């Protein structure tokens, strides 16, 4: 058998992930907003890969909170306006090399609207169709086995405490299910922004499993915390 593949060494492996606008609260009580795409979910948990010295992770370390605002293609221009901006006055070395500039007024620059959250201090983004309030559960060093970059990048495990979804995205006949044909995330694919097709390629065998089978205790935990806070 002939192998048609070639062996390469790409500098990045951004093979297609959703764009997230992370909102956090600065030390002076103002809001910070940053686009990122190193994110993945399991149950009501999410892993976020961030440069440790940046404003967003520093806010998350200090407050233990954030909001994950998932962008659709309609927010692509706003994402671009936020790109290469940082809320850190002393710009980290790596970001300085990449041409980042300090900007404390992220919402205004992006043309987005802050919206109060229910369970965390950081605001949501009104224009984003899906908003996930979250608390930090753990932080892990990434590449700490390499002394050249140890401490540079962190992976944050966050626990979702409240989910907000535009009603147009809900599956007909279900109050707690998002219709994958209606939700069109903005995708970062090797530094470029793409949408996704609403057409299902083939029926998925996984979709034959009731979504409730995946429900984890975090859902009830978040509801109980919200009831206590009310």
TrEMBL record:
Domain (Flavin reductase like) ranges: 16-169
Keyword S-adenosyl-L-methionine part of the UniProt annotation: no
Annotated transmembrane regions: none
Required cofactor names: FMN
Keywords for this protein: Flavoprotein
Gene3D superfamilies cross-referenced by the UniProt entry: Electron Transport, Fmn-binding Protein, Chain A
GO molecular function: FMN binding; oxidoreductase activity, acting on the CH-NH group of donors, NAD or NADP as acceptor
UniProt record similarity statement: Belongs to the flavoredoxin family.
Record's protein name: Flavin reductase family protein
